[in-house]
Amino acid sequence: MFPPQLYTRREILKSVSSGVGYLAFAALAHQQARAEAVAGGKPLDPKLPHFKARAKRVIFLSMQGAPSHIDTFDYKPQLAKDHGKAGRTAGARGGTLMGSKWEFKQRGKSGLWISELFPNVARMADELCMLNGMHTDIPNHPQAQVQMHTGSFQFVRPSLGAWTLYGLGTENANLPGFVALNPGAGNAQHIGSAFLPAIYQGTPFGNGGRRRFARGGNQEVRIPNIKNPNLTKDQQRAQLDFIQKLNEEKLRREQHQPGVEGVIESYELAFRMQDELPELMDINRESKETLDLYGIDGSETDGFGRQCLLARRFAEEGVRFVELTHGNWDHHRNLSQDLPARCREIDKPIAGLLEDLKRRDMLKDTLVVWAGEFGRTPHAQGGDGRDHNNKGYTTWMAGGGVKGGFSYGATDEYGYEAVDGRLHIHDWHATILHALGLDHEKLTYRHAGRDFRLTDVHGNVAHDIFA
């Protein structure tokens, strides 16, 4: 709910014509809790980390549906040997063991084991830090997704991106500090700020679904009403100056009105965004070589390639946290066809992103994170599928000071349960914040009578993964 001193949506849209009006209301959603924001200075001003940071920003590649780790990044030769046998371990749960259908090879100078499903990502093996000992609490998609993003599957809590922005601020006052590309319908909690001031929540671009980024076009990621069809820029400035004078007069009379301060800041941000966003999101300015690098060619890689390229552009312009979403990884059946299809859609774009960041000297201080909400079982489901498995799975990181060509942790011989270098989601969050120079125990916010943090009362940093 907006505080009573703020204008209603109808009043905002009546007072400011369409272009600025839409953006102002969007920005106002970020400003509605301005009174709670950091005292002294603006809430999104850059802040010093707790200690020297390895990474300045995060690009989070979120794979919704839980990719099969034992078919992609967790090589299990014993599972292949025992293919077709009745499982005698807890991991098989009485089912029939199913080895991977795809060949694994050691890649790069480091010799990381990577499946043939990712030939392009495999070229970047020496940049990857595999986390093979992941585990989480719930083997159910909605709860596990929320926990991966917020640290809790039971309560509404701020997202990882919101905590990052709260802790560090942003480097570009003309753009949102936390951007979510193609977040998907119904996933507001994944990018929400919960009890943190609303200015720290993610700004979504695109409206969900694996294929929402149209081939040959980029319409779905454009902001509606970014152009004012009725007024020139000078006319909008004059109109906005008049409205701001009224707001400032009210502020002068009443001395302290956080809501009015929020309106003033929101309108100005919205006006500035009109200039910067269209140019930033116009990928046609990129060279053909760059578009080809990301697989933006009208093929199956086109959609996710656009997301990856936009992520690089946002990161380059100072956005602190960029999240990309790719769906349909829930393969209870038709694994042999659907898993390769999903991998083909992201393999070249992700490799292109890593290569592009590296050649621009950005990978060293950009933490790229790839993760699903859990993994899959070593036993077959219906002959050509795998069930949910929260006891062991793989995520990976690259750049941002982590060791490249490095494998940390392990699951058992069948890939069912994490047995070494175990990382719970709380540990994973603590480690990501550590890369950004943030102490997860000190990054707190006072709410409901106590200090809250992303990792609650848990979390240990995996110090061994850092170079």
UniProtKB/TrEMBL annotation:
Q: What is this protein called?
A: Sulfatase
Source species: Haloferula helveola
**What is the taxonomic lineage of the source species?**
Bacteria, Pseudomonadati, Verrucomicrobiota, Verrucomicrobiia, Verrucomicrobiales
